[in-house]
Amino acid sequence: MSSLTRSSPRNGPKEWLSRPAKKYTRTKMHMPIVDGVQKWLEDLRWMTEPECMSVLQGKSLSKNSGEESTLVSAAKEVKDNIDAIRNRAHIVSSEFAKLFKKIEKERWKYLRSGAVRITSQIRSLLHDINTSIHDMPPYLFEVRVNPHSHWWLEITPQIRSLLHDINTSIHDMPPYLFEEEAVIMEESAKLSQYLDSLGEINGHKPHTLPLVNILTDLGQSFSAVVDMSLGYLIQNMVQAIQGENPYIIRSTISHLISLGLEGEHMCFLIAREGGVGTLFDLCRQKNMEFAHSQALRAIATVCCVSESIHELEKAGGVECLTDILCNDSSSESMRSEAAGVVAQITSPCLDHNQHITGFIENMEDLIRSLLDLCVQTSSNEVFLLATAAVANITFMDNMACDFLMQYDAARIMIQSCQLNKAESMFAKDQVATILANMAVVENCSADITDNNGIELLIQYLHQRPPSGASDAEKSACERVHQKAAIALTRLSKDVENAQIIVELQGVPRLVQLCRNITERNNSDGVLIACLAAIRKIASVCGQDQFTSVDVQQLIKPTLVDSYLICSQLEESFV
Fold this sequence. Notes:
Elements: H1 12-18, H2 36-57, H3 65-104, H4 111-132, H5 157-169, H6 175-196, H7 208-241, H8 246-260, H9 264-272, H10 275-283, H11 292-302, H12 306-314, H13 317-326, H14 332-345, H15 359-376, H16 380-393, H17 399-406, H18 409-418, H19 425-438, H20 442-450, H21 453-461, H22 471-491, H23 495-503, H24 506-515, H25 524-541, H26 549-555, H27 559-566
């Protein structure tokens, strides 16, 4: 211990202070000389190594990841080009509409500015088309236009510049498209030439017919070029599906689905360019199972126009769908997508769904497999697709109800509702449709009654859309009310069934739907169906059972008078 220790309490602080201090000799401390930069580099190595490891762990180890990303980007580029052309085409179409309105109102001084906007937009559109297509054959590099023709002298410098851009940047424009673009150039020059000569001569207004004819020809040529360009790009997408790269196939099908959702015209173009047939060919290839469900969804998206249905018939689509649904080895997701296609092509909204080639021959297998899917699935979405397909089939042929009775469809539908598979209003709509159409057949009516179907239908009368429901949900609730009332009307042909409806208090709810506009969401269809149900029940059970004034006003007058009593329409007797 050091000699400089604290004194004992006995000595006191003064004695401690009076002692002489011990002398220490100062020795020089030798520190090792270390390069600061070298020390920093050594520390830096340990500081950054964990970060480097994290970056390496986050990188893909696939050798082809860069190539796959490039291929997927190329597929997306085609979709982006299609979107760009369509957007520009909408702008040009709006300019055409404005110009026609100016002609109609004889606003002659504004015609030139409108024509300039149209030609400018068309030039820009042609530029977008040409930059979207690559690999033009050498023999198409020269412009197929006679530079000495009279209209060429009137063409603007911008169009000459555009032609130069076309010849230097396009690499794969098909001849028919190039020729149609030349027609647009000619019609644009005619328009400019006519507007230059337009004016009031001797106080007379210019003739509008020549101008309208020129604009009509230009508009038709413009529409043809847009249609050909979109078709050409879609054809490239369809050809990409025929390859073997799974990344390209999935990406391209996804883009086709997106295009199909943009409108019927895009569905028409996809069908015209062979998209439906190619997708069915893909579904038949066992080595392409990874894309089967996605391909079926694309088919369901596209098959909303008659051209797509015709292509489906050519490709033997009904037989392919039947094979998928009847195949026990098919996954539930794949079978649900096939059910979605069946629901789409049999939709009552389509005018041509009554005569689909091969459908009647495969109807029994389709109904049986769809009912099996309703039983096996626990998914509300899958149940909705399957019941929608069955409901649509019941509108196509009278044999459908016979097959439904054969495979116990009434029990399956009612029990599925008891298991809460039909939770959404849309699924309830499909179930009510099936029961209403089955109720037409006497034997099917007995199946519905034996499985407590009347109780379910009365429950459907009490359905209300949830708070904040969308317009689609409200419309679906209206259909549930209407079809439940129709089913009860058909079932009440039998006295016992009518008595059951009365005992289960179905009549008061029918009266409420007739009287209360809010309860039926102001739907005349629901009003008529409920009036028919009340009057049918009263005629079978006897009007004496219904003493309420509200009921008497609905069953004693004529149907038209009862309708006018409940309807919100204000009749004018002037």
